[in-house]
Design goal:
Shape: globular
Number of helices: 4
Structural class: mainly beta
CATH architecture: 7 Propeller
Strand content: 25-35%
Number of strands: 33
Largest sheet: 5 strands, antiparallel
Distance between the termini: 25 Å
Number of domains: 1
């Protein structure tokens, strides 16, 4: 879905600024460039990912760029949904899904040793999520890593109503709460960077996982880990709830419709962005074609390479890369046109690299690791042949590229590249 903007949406977003005003952080990379205050970020330790020598080193198809294969075996392996973190705060463990056992379970991979541990024993019979195939196990694409507290939250139980929590150090599994009877988790979920709130969406168990119709009502929720409070942030119907992510520690961004809501009981406000929009330190990516700040209404165009399907997630909002469908590959922004004419240059990170899974699992869903050295994604083994055993997890070395800030540098030279919704409609 492409970007659509309107004066009404911009005014509505700007109108919520007063009641959403909370403590902000400053993005250290933004000297001379800022669309607005940065939301609080995840508390990652400084340092680089340390990889065991036992992981297979491969060359990316088409470009020869160095990559590391993290998993092997049958079945599909894929990270948590790429709008949220999959790496623990010390960068030691990677949390991922695996169907190797014939069920969908969460695993913890120790990047320093190569050891993988199964965290869950979910046995829920489930429908697929957004065209992913169904199966048995934990509810697919709805698990979350609480970075601040080293815990994984997932939905399971006989009918999928149990929200459970696994401690990543002790591996102790506990029940957090149960959804009301007749309800189910229907969106990709998240935790706030400070680890205090679990953000999720639930709807009637009788409706399709993707769409709500008629009087079917979904509730956008925040669960407090310290007090067990359940707070309703938004009530919605006649929509498709794809994901919810934190915008700092005291507000949530969700779609569809694309909206921003605080934890203070005020109504949600529309945000004029497109599908697959992600929260970064600089604002919200608008389907990869622009960067938009929901509290100031300022926007800067980024561009959209031909054939792009998903924009990768850089939590700092500095490095721009995309998943291209047909042929399936990864590209990045090589040169940004600072004249404002949109004549950007894109280049391949990989050549064609298959992913034999279907539905949501059939995408790379790439994200940049917090140390800014690697790109994490799921794909078939490089030498898998015509009948791959399943998708595996890879890290692609992009350390030679991520020190740049093409969009920021262009804006510093030409501040007129930044516009606002109201200015555009005059």
């Amino acid at each position: 879905m492409k970007t659509h903007t309107s004066l009404f949406l911009a005014v509505a977003v700007l109108a919520i600024v007063p009641h959403l005003a909370v403590a902000q952080t400053t993005n250290p990379s933004d000297e001379g460039f800022s669309l607005g205050p940065a939301p609080e970020g995840y508390p990652y330790d400084k340092g680089d990912i340390k990889l065991a020598d036992t992981f297979k080193r491969v060359a990316a198809p088409g470009t020869g760029r160095k990559a590391v294969q993290l998993t092997t075996g049958k079945g599909h392996k894929y990270p948590l949904y790429y709008f949220i973190p999959s790496l623990t705060k010390d960068l030691r463990y990677l949390i991922y899904h695996s169907t190797e056992s014939g069920t969908i379970q969460m695993h913890r991979l120790d990047l320093t040793t190569g050891e993988s541990v199964q965290l869950t024993k979910g046995d829920t019979k489930q429908l697929g999520w957004w065209k992913s195939p169904g199966g048995v196990g934990v509810l697919d694409h709805r698990s979350v890593l609480n970075v601040a507290r080293d815990q994984v939250i997932y939905f399971a139980g006989p009918d999928g109503r149990q929200a459970r929590q696994v401690d990543l150090k002790t591996l102790k599994d506990t029940l957090l709460f149960e959804l009301p009877e007749g309800r189910k988790a229907i969106a990709q979920n998240a935790c706030t960077p400070d680890g205090k709130w679990f953000l999720y969406v639930h709807g009637p168990a009788s409706v399709n996982d993707k769409f709500l119709k008629g009087e079917a009502e979904a509730l956008v929720m925040a669960y407090n880990f310290d007090t067990a409070e359940q707070r309703v942030l938004h009530k919605g119907s006649n929509g498709s709830f794809h994901h919810i992510t934190p915008y700092g520690n005291n507000r949530a961004f969700f779609c569809h419709p694309w909206s921003l809501v605080g934890f203070d009981g005020q109504p949600a406000a529309p945000v004029p962005v497109g599908c697959h929009s992600m929260v970064t330190a600089r604002g919200i990516t608008c389907d990869g074609s622009s960067l938009y700040h929901p509290l100031t209404g300022k926007r800067v165009s980024v561009g959209w390479p031909k054939g792009a399907g998903h924009t990768g997630w850089d939590m700092e909002g500095r490095f721009w890369f995309w998943e291209i469908r047909g042929p399936h590959r990864l590209v990045y922004l090589k040169r940004y046109d600072e004249t404002g004419k949109g004549r950007h240059e894109f280049a391949d990170l990989t050549g064609e690299w298959r992913n034999s899974a279907i539905g949501q699992r059939g995408h790379f869903h790439p994200l940049l690791t917090p140390d800014r050295k690697w790109m994490l994604f799921a794909a078939d083994e490089v030498d898998a042949g015509p009948k791959p055993a399943g998708t595996q997890l890879f890290l692609l070395d992009v350390s030679d590229l991520t020190g740049t800030d093409l969009v920021g540098d262009a804006v510093r030279k030409n501040p007129k590249l930044i516009g606002s919704e109201t200015q555009k409609r005059k």
